[in-house]
Design brief:
This protein has 220 residues and is α/β, with parallel strands linked by helices. The protein has eight helices and eleven strands. Helix 2 runs parallel beside helix 3, helix 6 packs across helix 7 and helix 6 packs across helix 8. The radius of gyration is 18 Å and the shape is elongated. It starts with a strand and ends with a strand.
């Protein structure tokens, strides 16, 4: 899952990014509303954490502009303000949830996961069965022939991209786009490293290589 943080308090933004990255999310950070609107409008994010008080364009206007453009990405609004009016205004512009500063990171993480689960509930079940594999994307647990397999956060993030499109070819650029953040400029072959690790843990036949196209998760 890829998350965009739009927050002008740089220390807070970095802290949130580190925490979410440790949970296996790919995280991008911007510090003003106009850049946030531009990035979110690209449509590659699974969730946006959006501060209200921002330079360039405030969070209310960013949220309204995204919704007016038909962008339904889940939005968690952050604000130093407090009171029912502010919360109502944030939700009226199309935000999905609201968190008042100061807040616990544990609470923010729970809200993020809840929003992603809610969005997933509108589509596929969080429990996916592909041959001998059972993958629960809500709890991030994987079983192979009823034996639990332990993956790192990044390994799971790569697998998740294959799971949600099981049986279809997923290109390396798509995996990079959703699992590594916008600033990543390393070797794109890093995807192959993680695919190899997943094959060792899940069975070599579970992930097929489609030459020139990408990878496919199959029942094996």
């Amino acid at each position: 899952m890829r998350v965009l943080i739009v927050e002008d308090e740089k220390r807070l933004a970095v802290s949130l990014a580190r925490g979410l990255t440790a949970e296996g999310f790919a995280v991008d950070v911007v510090h003003d509303g106009l850049e946030g609107l531009h990035r979110a409008g690209e449509g590659v994010y699974d969730l946006v954490v959006l501060d209200i008080m921002l330079p360039g364009m405030n969070g209310y206007r960013v949220c309204s502009a995204l919704r007016a453009a038909g962008n339904d990405v889940p939005i968690l609004m952050l604000t130093a303000k407090d009171g029912e009016y502010d919360e109502a205004e944030g939700l009226d512009t199309g935000a999905d949830d609201y968190l008042t500063k100061p807040f616990s990171y544990v609470v923010l993480l729970a809200r993020v996961k809840a929003l992603l689960r809610r969005r997933g509930a509108a589509g596929a079940s969080p429990i996916q069965r592909i041959g001998a594999l059972v993958v629960d994307t809500s709890t991030r647990r994987i079983f192979r022939e009823d034996i639990e397999v332990t993956l790192t956060a990044k390994e799971f993030a790569v697998l998740e991209q294959l799971v949600v499109r099981a049986g279809q070819v997923v290109g390396k650029p798509e995996i990079l786009e959703h699992v590594w953040d916008f600033a990543y400029d390393g070797d794109p072959n890093i995807v192959e490293v993680y695919i190899s690790a997943l094959r060792r843990k899940l069975g070599a036949a579970a992930i097929q290589t489609v030459r020139g196209a990408g990878y496919r998760l199959v029942a094996a």
